[in-house]
Amino acid sequence: MTKGYRNTVQRTQILDAVRAADSHLTAGEIFECVRRRDPRIAYGTVYRALHLLAQHGLVQELTFADQASRYDKRVDRHDHVHCLGCGVLVDVDVPVALIARHVAAEQSGFEVESHHTVFAGRCRECKGKRTTADARHNRAETFALADDEREG
């Protein structure tokens, strides 16, 4: 592992859980995965280990305002698409986003060391649910208007 901290069985189990995941898990979800193998592990241990692993560049911590942080096994520079409906987070490689780093540095005068772009929207499933809900809402409004016209 990385120089600068002592590796433990628990830290290895936590790192393995992040690396085995097909999605970006929260600390709570990682805790549940590790707990299946080691029922004695504490949530605080998982939480502290995740921060340590992120500090040492072994995982990437992704924070979204008031939502729980999510952890990514990919530590290379890449971006994400975040669903505003269900919260799913998907890795994307957007080469054009690298230009944004240079523009930000040029406009601000900063020496930009890193950047992370998150595109927000709705996944196919949530977009479909929203379209269906909008259609139901529009039909309900149409029926309400028709009832008003009959009464008026």
How would you describe what is shown here?
This protein has 152 residues and is α+β, with helices and mostly antiparallel strands. The chain has 3 domains: 75 residues, Arc Repressor Mutant, subunit A (Orthogonal Bundle); 45 residues, Ferric-uptake regulator, C-terminal dimerisarion domain (Dna Ligase, domain 1); 30 residues. Strands 1-3-2 form a 3-stranded antiparallel sheet. It has a 3-stranded mixed sheet with strand order 5-4-6, with no helix packed on it. The longest helix is centred in the last third of the chain and has 28 residues. The N and C termini lie far apart (76 Å). The mean pLDDT is 85.
Give descriptors for this structure.
152 residues; Arc Repressor Mutant, subunit A; alpha+beta; flat; DNA-binding; three-stranded antiparallel sheet; Dna Ligase, domain 1; three-stranded mixed sheet; 5 helices
Q: Short description, anyone?
A:
This protein is an alpha+beta fold and 152 residues long. It has five helices and six strands.
Q: Give the overall pLDDT as a whole number.
A: 85
Categorize the overall geometry.
flat
Overall strand count: 6
- The largest beta-sheet arranges its strands as 1-3-2
Radius of gyration: 22 Å
Biggest β-sheet, characterized?
Answer: 3 strands, antiparallel
Contiguous low-pLDDT stretches (5 residues minimum) are: none
For the termini, the CA-CA separation is: 76 Å
Note the beta-strand portion.
5-15%
Class computed from helices, strands and strand pairing: alpha+beta
For the record, the CATH class of the largest domain is Mainly Alpha
CATH superfamily of the largest domain: Winged helix-like DNA-binding domain superfamily/Winged helix DNA-binding domain
Helicity, in percent?
40-55%
Order of helix and strand elements from N to C terminus: HEHHEEEEHEH
The assigned CATH architecture of the largest domain is: Orthogonal Bundle
Oligomer: single chain
